[in-house]
Amino acid sequence: MSLAQRRILLGVSGGIAAYKSCELVRRLRDLDADVRVVMTESATHFVSATTFQALSGQSVRVSLWDAQAEAAMGHIELARWAERILIAPASADILARLAHGLADDLLTTLCLASAAPLYVAPAMNQQMWAHASVQTNVETLRQRGVHLLGPASGDQACGDVGNGRMLEAHELRDALAASFGDGSLAGLKVIVSAGPTYEDIDPVRFIGNRSSGRMGFAVAQAAALAGAQVTLVAGPVSLATPAGVTQRIDVRSAAQMHAEVLAAAAQADIYIAAAAVGDFRPNEVSAHKLKKTCDGAGLSLQLSENPDILASLSAQPTHPFLVGFAAETQDVASYAKQKLSRKGLDMIAANQVGEGLGFEAADNALSVYWADGSIDLPRVAKAELARQLITQVAQRYRASRAG
Ligand code: CTP
Q1: What's the pLDDT score for residue 294?
Q2: 208 near 199, Cβ under 8 Å?
Q3: d(Cα 300, Cα 286) in Å, to the nearest integer?
Q4: CA–CA distance, 122 with 374 (Å, rounded to integer)
């Protein structure tokens, strides 16, 4: 793993975990990263700027109003210089300011002025972390494409035990290194489908499912980071297009997704089907809102089966390398292997869904199967899991083309 010459802007906000960020600068420099540290005013109450200056070998900035520093590398240049911004620790206060787009100090101004991907490593008391305000701010940032690293659970400096510990320095460093990708899909065209599909009943109602689209979006991002040219075909989700994705096509129904994926597949090397495609659609879509009859008779909907996108592709004489997903509530391995052979897939990534697992959770675990092998990818954040899955897909794809 290397971060050689990578330009990392480390933002340090006010929290006791700031002491761990000293170690983080050392670990980043071990991998030859070029690190500049920007502190909030509160952070200087925990660790001095001199400490970070000595560790990074660069002057440390705190204030937006430092005339001397602005004359050297101004804040806009610093914002442009950064390839990644990592805020560690990210306090509840800075998460709130970022979520509201404030630019009331140097660090928040840099975050607005920079196009670099933003990573935040929250660190705070477990009660604060659980607070609805903090969770809403975090969700806002996540929806905007900010990458959340942690927090972890465990003993806290305040004596509490719970969620809110900052990740360890080596974990943050590894996440940043991974974010630059390994080029394993360089030169390849990859289609990723993501999210649910909605099958309309009438102008106000539909049949949908609980897929959030997060896993598929993470897979699209990981494929882009691995150097692929990515087309993301997304069902109805409210997620920002991940950085590096070449094209996004928004669809609503399974039939639309089928048409878009088949059209794109002619040019593609790999299709990763992370979407939770609705299996059935109403035979008829009512032009007007269906009315209650109030006679206790109920309502029967006649449904017909949607086309199977993966099966349609595998039936074609030439088609991309096909990777399916299987979200199951029971007998995960056996259902997944059945789908692998029934749909004629090259690989399938299976996971258990249900209580706290799968669709709506921030992390996930996968078991990946192919004709003559399998691997378990244990539970981690979806972004990291997607990266590990892409590594597997790249390996199997190359092996299939070599053989
Ligand atoms: N899939 C597809 N087209 C469909 C339905 C599913 O391409 N019409 C893909 C999904 O994107 C996923 C895989 O098939 O990659 C498995 O989806 P899943 O819903 O688990 O499989 P089904 O075949 O629908 O089986 P079941 O609902 O009976 O579990």
Answers
A1: 81
A2: yes
A3: 13
A4: 34
Kind and range of the H or E element at 30? helix 18-30
**Model pLDDT, residue 60:** 96
253 lines ligand 1 (CB under 6 A): no
Distance CA 33, CA 47 (A): 21
Task: State residue 72's pLDDT score.
Answer: 78
Among candidates 89, 72, 82, which has minimal Cα distance to 9?
82
In sequence order, the 6+-apart residues with CB closer than 8 A to the CB of 124 are 15, 89, 91, 92, 134, 151, 164
Start-end of H helices in 73-213: 75-81, 92-99, 106-113, 126-130, 132-143, 169-179
The pair phi, psi for residue 252, each rounded to 5°, is: -120, -50
DSSP secondary structure letter of residue 360: T
Indicate whether 360 pLDDT > 80.
Answer: no
Position 336 scores a pLDDT of: 96
Taken in order of first residue, the domains within the chain and their CATH numbers are 7-179 (3.40.50.1950), 189-402 (3.40.50.10300)
What share of the chain has pLDDT > 90, as a percent? Answer: 78
Distance in Å, CA 277 to ligand 1 centroid? 6
Q: What is the pLDDT of residue 158?
A: 81
Task: From residue 208, give the alpha-carbon distance in Å to each of 79, 243, 360.
Answer: 42, 27, 14
Catalytic residues: 158
> Which residue among 279, 313, 334 has the greatest number of ligand 1 atoms within 8 angstroms of its CB, and so is best to mutate?
279
Q: What is the pLDDT of residues 161-189, one digit of tens each?
A: 889 999 999 999 988 998 888 889 999 99
- Rounded mean pLDDT of 30-39? 97
Q: Is the pLDDT of residue 357 over 80?
A: no
| pTM across the whole model | 0.72
Max Cα distance, the chain (Å): 79
Q: Say yes or no: CB of residue 258 within 6 Å of ligand 1.
A: no
The CA distance from 309 to 381, in Å, is 28
Summarised one tens digit per residue, pLDDT across range 223-241 is 998 999 999 999 999 998 8
Left, alpha or beta for 391 (phi > 0: left; psi -120 to 50: alpha)?
Answer: alpha
| Torsion angles phi and psi, residue 164, rounded to 5 | 145, -5
- Residue from 207, 308, 334, 389 to probe ligand 1 pocket by mutation (most atoms less than 8 Å from CB): 308
The DSSP 8-state label assigned to residue 73 in this structure reads: S
